[in-house]
Each structure stands twice: as structure tokens, then as C-alpha cells.
Amino acid sequence: MEQARIVVVAGDGIGPEVTREAQRVLEAVAPKHGLALAFEEHLIGGASIDAHGTPLRDEVVARARQSQAVLLGAVGGPKWDAMPVATRPEKGLLRIRKELGLFANLRPATVFPALAGASTLRPDVVSGVDMLVVRELTGGLYFGEPRGRSAAGGKREARNTMVYDEDEVARIARVAFEAARGRRKHVTHVHKANVLEVSQLWVEVVDEVAKDFPDVALAHQLVDSCAMLLVRDPGRFDVIVTENLFGDILSDEAAQITGSLGMLPSASLGAGGIGLYEPVHGSAPDIAGKDAANPLAAILSAAMLLEHSLAAHDAARRVRDAVTAVLEAGHRTADLVLPGEQRPTIGCRAMGDRVLEALAL
Ligand code: IPM
Ligand code: MG
Q1: Is-catalytic flag, 335?
Q2: Residue ranges with strand state E in 87-200
Q3: Ligand 1 probe mutation, 75, 90, 142, most atoms within 8 A of CB
Q4: pLDDT of residue 53
Q5: Do residues 298 and 261 lie in contact, with contact meaning Cβ atoms separated by under 8 Å?
Q6: Residue 248 near ligand 1, beta carbon < 6 Å
Q7: Is 142 part of the annotated catalytic residue set?
Q8: Interacting residues of 146 by C-beta distance below 8 A, sequence separation 6+
Q9: Distance in Å, CA 321 to ligand 1 centroid
Q10: pLDDT per residue of the chain (361 residues) written in tens, 0 to 9
Q11: Is the CB–ligand 1 distance for residue 90 below 6 Å?
Q12: CB–CB of 177/213 below 8 Å?
């Protein structure tokens, strides 16, 4: 049996806690599906800054390049908040995405029926929501040059540049249309073409790519009204494709619709064949180290790893079914309980245990 090498970069805050549970799930499910996984752990983000003075070492990038997949926790925290953007923990995450060429970030936002009541939106608005945010991940304002701060004549100034070329737009549009083919065959392209030239280019190029997918319906939606429609009528969306910053913002919004940011997994894919899998929720420093985090987004990210990097579709389904079963059985971490709701909650490790038990059935 060939071994699949998985680089684990758990990072900061709740990253290590939730990643540990995701790794335990992978270890439990792999032998049942004829998979041999070899894990190796490395530092990223603030943890790497503290140990090595940099948020991501070249050596870790090299190890990641030699792996099938990267399992990531979260980066950042108050300890490093005062640092300039160029050296912050987040730079480690941005760099590994860029170095591995991971331009396509898939963020599915699905409402588990058992959690329809955990959303701050009415259950009738959120039930049945099943959308996929396809976020461009290696371009736009996050990486555009020129960027930086200056102080001409003592007056502080700062700039960032939103820039995309047509190839960058076409390749992410293709990912979205392909994904839609396996779903409800509807793509919404989100833009700000009434103001931004960059968005006008996106509209043009997405329309061109759409010609190759006559079986998929396409709508263009302004980003501000999309933000509004997401809370008014989230069920209307199937696949959303958009540039990096819009995707960052809208994917948090989409996640909250499902009841908790603690439920949303992600996969970052590129042409190189390596995938990076991380929960969308971030490092949540306020609850770090308290065994209070929700590991389900990390566990569902592990399911995406099985699916996209190892083509282990049955194993992926098994993990998702186990998560569904645990929720149906009523187990909840604190984030899945609405304020005022009387309901016992369990911690991160216990939630991992429940998923492992459900997997064993
Ligand atoms: C995300 C996060 C990151 C991003 C941060 C931590 C750099 O918010 O993955 O959505 O903005 O991409
Ligand atoms: Mg974000």
C-alpha cells in the first residue's frame, strides 16, 4: 500500500486542538478504506514566529511540496497583533497558499438539518441551504503590487492594489462551472463592476468561460446586494464564484447562516496536485486551550482531504455521515447553542470522541 504523506500545520489558538481531532478521525478511517497515511507536523503562523522568527520556514514549504495534502488549523492571535502585515502570522498562511499555487478555495456552506435551529436566521430561511463559495485565493488585493505604507511629508499613507489578469479569472471560473455541474448547475459571479475595472474584466471573462458550459446557468450579482441576499434568501445560491477579498467576507457570512462558523470546512486546490485543507473559523484566541472549540469544521476539512486529495470518496462520505449522526444525536459544542437556549454542551475532545464512536458503528 502506498503511503500518502500529509503535512500537518496546526498553527495557533484553537488550531492545534481542532486539528488533533481531525487527525484522529483520519487515522481511524484510513485503515478501513485501504489508505496508509503518514503525518508529519510543522509550525506555521505565530507558533513559527516564536520558535524560528518567521511565520513559515522554507523547509516547511519544501516538505509541503513533497506531500499529497496539507492539513492546517488556524493562524494568528493577540500576541502578534501589533506586528506589521509583512511579518505577521497570517503571512505564513498567505505564503503557503501562494507557494503551492492554491488558487481555488472551495468553501461549502451546508445546513445540517439538526442545526437549522442553531442559526440566528429563522429555520424556514436556512433549511436546505447548500451552497459552495469558490473564492479566488492567490490574487487580488491580498497579493497585488504596489502595496505598503509611506509617509510623504510626515503624512501617513497606505496602498494596496487589486489586480487580476484574464488567465487568473478564467481558471477560477472553470473551477466554479465544473463544480456546478456536479450540483444544481447554477453559478453566481459576485463583483463590483459598477465601480471597479477589475470586476468589469471578471464579468467579461466569466461570460466567455460560460460559453463552454451551456448546461450551467450564470448570474452576475453585485457584491453589496449579494451580501444582502445571503441573509434574505440564502437558499437561492448554488455556486458563488468571486475574487479573493469578496470571497473572504462572503464566506464568513455564508458560514454563519449555517449556524456556526465552527462548521465550515475548506479545500484549497491548484494545478500542482497538492491540496490544503483548513477550517474557515480561524484561531479564536478567546477560547484557545480551554477545550471549548468545535472540531467539526476541521473534521469536515479532513473529509474534503479524503475526497479531493486521496479520491477516497467512500471514506469522505463516512466521515460526513458520522458528523451528521453526532449532530442528530444532539451533541453540541458551545458555539452551536444559541444564547438563552438551555442545552448541555461538550468540549472539543469529547466532540472528537463522539465522531470516532459514530465512525466505529
Ligand atoms: C480566511 C482567513 C485568512 C484570509 C486570514 C487569516 C489571512 O480570514 O482564510 O478566510 O483572509 O484569507
Ligand atoms: Mg476569512
Answers
A1: no
A2: 104-110, 130-136, 148-152, 155-159, 186-191
A3: 90
A4: 96
A5: no
A6: yes
A7: yes
A8: 159, 161
A9: 28
A10: 679 999 999 999 999 999 999 999 999 999 999 999 999 999 999 999 999 999 999 999 999 999 999 999 999 999 999 999 889 999 999 999 999 999 999 999 999 988 888 888 998 999 889 999 999 999 999 999 999 999 989 999 999 999 999 999 999 999 999 999 999 999 999 999 999 999 999 999 999 999 999 999 999 999 999 999 999 999 999 999 999 999 999 998 998 888 778 899 999 999 888 999 999 999 999 999 999 999 999 999 999 999 999 999 999 999 999 999 999 999 999 999 887 888 999 999 999 999 999 999 8
A11: yes
A12: yes
Q: Is 192 a catalytic residue?
A: yes
| Sign of the dihedral through C-alpha 49, 55, 59, 60 | positive
Distance CA 182, CA 351 (A): 31
pLDDT of residue 249: 96
Does ligand 1 lie within 6 Å of residue 115's CB atom?
no
175 with 134: CB under 8 angstroms? yes
What is the C-alpha separation between 230 and 79, in angstroms, rounded? 34
Q: For residue 94, which atom of ligand 1 is closest to its CA? A: 7
Q: Of these residues, 79, 98, 252, 353, which one is catalytic?
A: 252
Q: How far is CA 36 from the centre of its chain?
A: 25
Closest CA to 2 of 30, 40, 42: 30
Is 277 known to be catalytic?
Answer: no
Q: Which domains does the chain have, with CATH numbers?
A: 1-113+260-361 (3.40.718.10), 130-257 (3.40.718.10)
Q: What 3-state class would DSSP assign to 38?
A: strand
CB 47 within 8 A of CB 92: no
CA of 51 to the centre of ligand 1 (A): 22
What strands lie across the sheet with 217-222, from one edge to the other? 36-42, 3-11, 69-74, 275-277, 267-269, 104-110, 130-136, 239-242, 186-191, 217-222
Does the Cβ of 168 fall within 6 Å of ligand 1? no
252 as an active site residue: the answer is yes
The amino acid at 173: A
Cell numbers for 75: 493562524
Ligand 1: residue whose CA is nearest its atom 10: 248
The protein residue whose alpha carbon is closest to atom 8 in ligand 1 is 248
